Amino acid sequence: MKMLKRISYAERAALCTNRIAQRLFSLLTEKETNLALSADVTTCAALLELADKLGPEICILKTHVDILTDFTSELTKQLVSLAEKHHFLIFEDRKFADIGNTVKHQYQQGVYHIADWADIVNAHSLPGPGIISGLAEVGLPKQRGLLLLAEMSSAGNLITSDYVQKTLRMAEQFPEFVLGFIAQKKISADPWWLYMTPGVQLTEGKDTLGQQYVTPAKAIGENQSDIIIVGRGILQAKDPQSEAQKYRQAGWEAYCAGLK
Known about the structure:
Elements: H1 9-15, H2 19-31, E1 35-38, H3 44-54, E2 60-63, H4 73-86, E3 89-96, H5 100-108, E4 120-124, H6 130-139, E5 145-149, H7 161-172, E6 178-182, E7 194-197, E8 205-206, E9 212-213, H8 216-222, E10 227-230, H9 232-235, H10 240-259
Parallel strand pairs: 1-2, 1-10, 2-3, 3-4, 4-5, 5-6, 6-7, 7-10
Antiparallel strand pairs: 8-9
Helix pairs in contact: 1-2, 3-4, 5-6, 8-10
């Protein structure tokens, strides 16, 4: 795909018909951060502490509520309150991967009632367009948005270039609900899609379980992603707040450099 000249988040917000994409592009501009925190902790207290302390630095808080050992519905109420306080969106990294009827219930019901509090969720495109239709039945009335997993950062994953393009074609069928992609790089010249890249650290490398890391400069600059997702690079730091500020600055500088 031929890369076109980069345009600003604000300009892209004006081109979006997807409400969550509009809201997120505007938030990036107003808050001057493209940092998403992957808050993979196992207690409600730890999650709420991170959301409150690091909320001023981030545009998105990415959660995995199914790893919490003490989940209650009160947690999600407090998360929504902190999101309003610090001006960030909540992304539940559920990775739905079943038929439409099943994911509809997983999204709306069960223990977590994800659709009631998560602005954004994500899904694999492997099951076909029915998965998007099922999720949209629940999410659209609540003005939620969906990211499709177009690429992954783990070594040896089975995603091919053909799979990526079919995922893009699928997204194009649901522009009112799909706001963009989890991807390692930009996959379309259309400016209204939003890209979030996981596996970001200040230095490149990999962990013992196959996760491959890229830098903010590579993710945002070279690969033209929009938002960097950082977890352990911040959570395992001696001073997570100070480290989050470093990632925020690195991501924003890479975005600004790309506009020049």
